[in-house]
Structures are given as C-alpha cells and as structure tokens.
Amino acid sequence: MKVKELMIKNVLTCAKDDSIINVAKKMVDHNVGMLVVIEDNLSKKPIGVLSDRDIISKIVVNKKDPSKITADQISTKKIISVTPELFLDKAVETMNKNKIKRLIVIDDLGNLVGIISKADIIKQFLEIRKQLVDLATFEI
C-alpha cells in the first residue's frame, strides 16, 4: 500500500505571517495538533510545520505574547516529507528514524498534497487485521 492511499488530502495550513493566536484558534476549531506553514494563502509550498507543542514550549512556557509572534517565527523549518508513491513501510521507517508522528506529503514540484500520520497507518492495519480475523473465522 502507498502513502497516497491513506494520506489526508485536505491539509490544514497557516500562512507564515499568521499570528499564533489565529494559529492556535484554527488548531482548536479543527481539533488538530499541527498545521503546515505555507509561504502565503495562495501558495502550496510548505516552509515549515507548527505544532501545539511548539506553541507551548516556545511561547507559553517563556511567557511571550502570542499576538505579537507569527507562525514563521516559531515553526520548525526542517520539513520531513515523503511522496505519494512511497510505500507505507518506508513512510513508517522515516517517521521512526526522525522520531515524528506525521509526515508532509509533497509532489514532484514540492507542492503540499497531503499529510499522513502514524495513527492513520495504525487504523488501516487494525482494519486489515479485523478483516483477516473475520475471514479466518468464516465457516464454510
């Protein structure tokens, strides 16, 4: 199975100039823990990732004013990405090697096309396991 078969295509993003207040509100409104930071709202080129943990560790703990800080100022610039054609086992290896839970999926032009998480992969394998158990217990 390939990444493109499980990836979420409608990725929530924020522009690099968005305030952390707006970023945090978007995360809460959509119940997500990470946004992909893009150059601007017209662009699909990822320039970083921003997690709820980044907000806590870089702003809240340091008692900084989130209304005066932009996504670009605290986002992680090192983007770990994969292509839609990569097999899932390689995606899991990449996550494990980099100690991350999510991967950005980009096309050959570097455009954001999706995101895949360990949770997405685990859900798929649990479903396959259930189907196999059902098949094994099916009586002829």
| Assigned CATH class | Alpha Beta
| Low-confidence parts | none
Beta-strand residue percentage: 15-25%
Work out the oligomeric state of the chains in this entry.
single chain
SSE string: HEHEEHHEHEEH
| Number of strand segments | 6
* Average predicted confidence as pLDDT: 90
Count of helical stretches: 6
What kind of sheet is the major sheet?
3 strands, mixed
Structural class by sheet pairing and helices: alpha/beta
Helical content (DSSP H or I, runs of 4+): 40-55%
- CATH fold node name: CBS-domain
The CATH homologous superfamily is named CBS-domain
Q: Strands of the biggest beta sheet: in what spatial order?
A: 1-2-3
Domain count: the total is 1
Q: What global shape is seen?
A: elongated
Write down the Rg: 18 Å
Report the span from N to C terminus: 29 Å
Q: Your description of this structure?
A:
The chain is of the alpha/beta class. The chain has one domain: Roll (CBS-domain). It has six helices and six strands. The chain has helices spanning 3-6, 20-30, 52-60, 71-74, 88-98, 118-137, and strands at residues 13-15, 34-38, 46-51, 81-82, 102-106, 112-117. A three-stranded mixed beta sheet has the order 1-2-3. The protein has a three-stranded mixed beta sheet with strand order 4-5-6. Helix 5 links the parallel strand 4 (81-82) and strand 5 (102-106). The protein starts with a helix and ends with a helix.
